[in-house]
Design brief:
The structure is a single chain. This protein has helices at residues 17-28, 40-52, 67-81, 104-132, 144-147, 153-173, 191-194, 198-207, 216-227; strands at residues 8-11, 32-35, 56-59, 86-89, 135-140, 178-183, 238-239. Helix 1 crosses helix 9 (216-227). The protein is an alpha/beta fold. It has a single domain (8-187, 216-236), classed as NAD(P)-binding Rossmann-like Domain (Rossmann fold). Helix 4 (104-132) links the parallel strand 4 and strand 5. It has a seven-stranded parallel β-sheet with strand order 3-2-1-4-5-6-7, sandwiched between helices. The chain binds nicotinamide-adenine-dinucleotide (NAD). Nicotinamide-adenine-dinucleotide binds at residues 12-13, 15-19, 36-39, 42, 63-65, 90-94, 113, 140, 142, 185, 187-188, 190-193.
Length: 248
Amino acid sequence: MSRLAHHRALVTGAGAGIGRAIAIRLAAEGASVTVNDLDPASAEATAASIANEGGRATAAPGDVSSEADVAAMYAAAEAAYGPVTLAVNNAGIVTQVPLETMDAAAFDRMIAVHLRGCFLGCRRAIGPMLAAGSGVIVNIASQLGQIGGTELAHYSAAKAGIIGLTKSFAREVSARGVRVNAVAPGPINTDLVRAISQEWRDAKAAELPLKRFGEPEDVAATVAFLASDDARIYVGQTLGPNSGDVML
Ligand code: NAD
């Protein structure tokens, strides 16, 4: 497949789970991929597995909430392949804390990784894209940013913020050739969800119209579509690979 052969991608949080699947899918469709993760070893491992399959990938570790780290990962991407044409802001964390005991540090860190990280990534990516008159940004939100989540106020607020950021950037830059969209997955089988009890996962799966969770590859397919010219008319949208859990 070479649908994305024209793209030089940077995927954050691509050492595991959804980000890893996205990086692998983009590379399989012909993109060169810069693999970011906070954990350098996992970023290297994803890049190595792409290279083993004959794809082009390089690792660029760093914390998406740090302006300096974001600058460094983009500089690494540019040095390896040239200006980034496809930015996927995926890195994320989750903790479950009741609102009455949620401390400000936990709230701030959640907002920093998700919302600030997404802002910093978009802002760094956008300049070269506008200069070239083309580019694609895909931000990974969550359905919890659309419907809220119990003991997840910080996470839901950050994800709702990402959806707002996506719509605003899309309004601002679409006429200049850059398409910005979001993806809001439902429950997806990754370590992030496997950390929750089997009992909760069984109950949650039973209430889904599809009766099963998605796989990281399902989200990756959505991102690959949005990255491609097949999605040329999609602007400021939030696509929902979510087993039917949320229907908007
Ligand atoms: P995961 O924990 O499997 O992977 C997340 C990756 O991000 C890890 O490799 C981690 O090291 C990295 N990371 C964390 N903080 C970082 C930082 N500050 N800078 C760079 N990298 C960092 O999680 P996942 O399930 O693959 O989640 C990926 C994204 O999808 C997240 O934004 C998450 O909120 C979102 N999401 C997940 C689900 C789900 O059910 N799994 C549902 C909706 C949305």
